[in-house]
Design brief:
Chain lengths: ~120, ~700
């Protein structure tokens, strides 16, 4: 069962997303900021990280850098609000594979996760 | 891969000769065009030369040559029609094409395909044609290139990629502009492509994408080591992309030229070739080897002529009235005359105008000054001066080095020149001229000149000379130190010239040719190198001398004078013998010591036929031959002088090999062998032994 690490500072978002993914057969772990995501990534070695961009403590872009720094094969998909193109591009430069936009549409999220995590 | 061409060997020869001519013409004219601007007539001539080459190579069936010349012709045509401006990169490309054409031409000789990367050149040309220098309407350029709006400053990158064996592909990707953040999709496409390929150009560019200025479809030119499918795989996963195509980027023009060239070039070429043959009507091409053999045979004849003259002279005394004797005298006189003429004619046949050598220099000088970032005019004079082809071949490298040296070390950077009140553009002059029996080639620059003080300091620092010895040397003598092995005045090593091995090698090579090099330099005004060379290497005029029964030949080019001195005039400095010639102390060399000749052989000298000594050193008197090497003089003690003679140089052969002090052997009229002294070698040996390091003035 593919393991997904959900990173978002908004508990609501994490909950909705976790529900969607578990219903579709994924194992889900959660982190509420970049720093926690980096730590959990090391522990859990998830198949995919869904990463918010704007977060306290450590933002998503920096988290991508650190995760990719520790594991170049890490797969990270950014979850971004509309209008954050520049940041998404920066995240992609940092090693993120793809992005999905909020407010999220369930089928798009599932598509993306399926494409990257199987 | 072996190549075959549908032509007789004679046709091929005509083709090759003509191709050589056209390529040389192209090279000269392109240099001229870059220097003097696009003179209509000149461009026309360049265009014609390329056109002729195209036609001939197409007719011959040399597809790759035809293809390249066709594309060149297109570019030149646009220059001719003022639709394209000449730029430095374009000139570089044209030169690269000429180099490639030479290699392609060689394929005909070798029958092997060369490593010329035609595609990259074709692209450089087409890129240049559509590039920054183009004054063509943009819309037209787009249609030509099939790549709308792409920044076409990729010529060199494209060529480089192809040089590295990469494929080039044109990727088009239609991004769904209605999706969320299409600019990020575009960005992903570019990023993904750059992970497995090199993005050479794109529309929109990466910068535009980052500024969210995205248009669809995207057009991207990439270079990759992988197949088009693999390139496609890089981007196929990017969401919100409606369609992707990946096509090998081989511009359609590439396939066409060979065809069109052979179609319209064919009939025309027949005329050209006929014309070429017509022009060649009064000349016959002869293999160099044939000339060399002829030269050898004439050498033998010259020997026999001398012998015959001697026989005829001796028989005269026996029976001067006999008809046979008179007949012999007349015939031998006639043969002597005919042989001399024959010798002269063959020498002439071996002579080439130095132009053959010089003409490769303008391009080299252009490239060099470009590289050194210096503005420099290059002027050649006396290109029609003729020189034996063997000498021409040998002198090429030394001259190239001298020229490089002028650009690199002579000519100052522009700001220094202006500061010194000199014209901003430097000048290097290469000139050939006749001087008696030799030819003089000078390389002159109006650069910074050589600072004798700097060299003095360097010589002391490097341990070449003691400080007081350095001070005693004249400026001229000091400057000549740059020819000393291992001596270099370059403050820094550049990639153009000077790694500290240059000048002494030049010096040695020129002296190997029985020539010598002199240097004149005025600080702040420039430097002149004067290379004096014999007209031929095969025959020299020599002074024949005897020593302990051995006949030796001293090349006349090295002989300053002969003197008879009293034994009492020989002085000693430490253990070394010297004599004083016009106030100068000159080392005296005893060849018998140098060569270790045995005393017993003296007896044999009396039996020596024909040429036996007429003047024998008596009592205290010693005959010396003063030889010179540049500014250095040395006296060689001999037993007797036999006279001047033309001798044919024969190498000593591998069995004997290089003997210090001997450069070869000559066969004399009586069939005996004389040793030819290697004066430069002897002087250098003496120098190594420190015989010139003594004070330069007597008493």
């Amino acid at each position: 069962m593919p393991k997904i690490l959900l990173v978002d500072d908004a508990a609501f978002m994490r909950m909705r997303c976790a529900k969607l993914l578990t219903e579709n057969g994924y194992e889900v772990a959660e982190a509420e900021n970049g720093a926690e995501a980096v730590a959990k990534y090391g522990e859990l070695k998830p198949d995919l990280v869904l990463m918010d961009i704007t977060m306290p403590v450590m933002d998503g872009i920096q988290a991508v850098r650190e995760i990719k720094g520790g594991d170049p094969a890490a797969k990270v998909v950014m979850v971004s609000a509309l209008g954050q193109q520049t940041m998404v591009m920066e995240a992609i430069k940092a090693g993120a594979k793809d992005f999905v936009v909020k407010p999220f549409q369930p089928d798009k999220i599932l598509d993306t996760v399926k494409r990257h995590a199987g | 891969m072996a190549l075959e061409f549908d032509a007789s060997p004679e046709d091929l020869k005509v083709f090759l000769d003509e191709a050589d001519e056209q390529l040389q013409l192209l090279e000269e004219d392109i240099v001229k065009m870059e220097r003097d601007g696009e003179d209509d007539e000149l461009v026309q001539e360049i265009f014609r030369a390329a056109h002729t080459l195209k036609g001939s190579s197409a007719t011959l069936g040399h597809k790759r040559m035809a293809e390249l010349t066709h594309v060149m012709e297109n570019v030149l045509d646009r220059i001719r029609k003022h639709r394209l401006e000449l730029s430095t990169p374009l000139v570089d490309t044209l030169f690269a094409c000429l180099d490639a054409l030479r290699a392609l031409k060689e394929e005909i000789v070798t029958g092997q395909e060369s490593a010329v990367d035609l595609a990259s050149l074709v692209h450089r040309l087409t890129d240049a044609g559509a590039g920054a220098g183009s004054v063509q309407a943009p819309a037209q350029a787009e249609a030509d290139a099939g790549l709308p709006g792409v920044d076409w400053q990729v010529g060199s990158k494209l060529a480089e990629a192809r040089e590295h064996g990469l494929h080039t592909y044109l990727v088009t990707a239609a991004v769904d502009m209605n999706s969320a953040m299409p600019s990020v999709r575009a960005f992903q496409i570019l990023m993904n492509l750059s992970q497995g390929a090199e993005v050479l150009a794109s529309r929109p560019t990466l910068e535009e994408v980052e500024e969210e200025k995205v248009t669809s479809p995207m057009v991207i030119l990439v270079a990759a080591a992988v197949t088009s499918d693999a390139v496609r795989q890089l981007v196929v996963d990017v969401p919100d992309v409606l369609g992707i195509t990946v096509k090998p980027y081989e511009a359609e023009e590439e396939a066409q030229p060979a065809q069109s060239a052979s179609e319209n070039g064919g009939p025309k070429q027949n005329g050209d070739a006929a014309a070429a043959r017509g022009r060649g009507g009064r000349t016959v091409r002869v293999d160099v080897e044939v000339l060399d053999n002829l030269m050898n045979l004439v050498g033998e004849l010259v020997i026999d002529r001398t012998r015959l003259t001697q026989i005829s002279a001796t028989s005269d005394t026996d029976d001067r009235d006999s008809e046979v004797s008179q007949e012999l005298g007349r015939t031998s006189g006639h043969i002597a005359r005919v042989t001399s003429e024959l010798q002269e004619e063959i020498m002439r046949a071996r002579m080439l105008p130095v132009d053959n050598l010089f003409k490769k220099f303008p391009r080299m000088m252009r490239d060099l000054s470009q590289k050194a970032g210096k503005e420099c005019d290059f002027i050649m004079r006396g290109e029609e001066t003729e020189l034996d082809r063997s000498v021409i071949e040998e002198i090429s490298d030394p001259l190239m080095h001298l020229l490089r040296n002028s650009v690199d070390h002579g000519i100052e950077p522009q700001e220094d020149r202006v500061k010194a009140g000199k014209p901003a553009r430097g000048q290097v002059i290469l000139e050939a001229s006749h001087e008696e029996n030799s030819i003089v080639i000078t390389v002159r620059d109006d650069g910074r000149g050589i600072d004798p003080e700097k060299i003095r300091a360097k010589a002391v620092e490097k341990g070449f000379l003691a400080e007081d010895a350095a001070r005693r040397l004249s400026d001229r003598e000091v400057i000549e130190l740059i020819f000393a092995p291992g001596f270099s005045t370059a403050d820094r090593v550049t990639d153009i010239s000077g790694r500290g091995v240059g000048m002494d090698v030049v010096h040695r090579n020129i002296e190997k040719l029985n020539g010598h090099i002199e240097i004149e330099s005025a600080l702040g005004q420039g430097t002149e190198f004067r290379v004096k060379l014999p007209l031929t290497l095969a025959i020299i005029r020599a002074l024949l001398v005897t020593l302990k029964g051995t006949v030796m030949a001293i090349p006349l080019t090295s002989v300053t004078e002969t003197r008879r001195i009293r034994g009492s005039e020989i002085q000693r400095i430490k253990t070394r013998e010297v004599i004083v010639v016009r106030g100068h102390v000159v080392p005296l060399l005893r060849l018998e010591e140098a060569f270790g000749l045995e005393e017993e052989r003296q007896a044999e000298s009396e039996q020596h036929s024909g040429l036996s000594a007429q003047v024998v050193s008596r009592g205290e008197e010693v005959t010396v031959v003063i030889v010179n090497l540049g500014q250095k003089q040395m006296a060689i003690a001999v037993d007797a002088l036999l006279g001047e003679m033309e001798v044919v140089i024969k190498s000593l052969g591998k069995l004997i090999g290089d003997v210090p002090g001997i450069s070869g052997a000559a066969i004399l009229g009586d069939g005996s062998v004389a040793i030819i002294l290697d004066v430069p070698g002897l002087v250098q040996t003496a120098q190594r032994e420190g015989r010139f390091a003594e004070p330069a003035r007597a008493g």
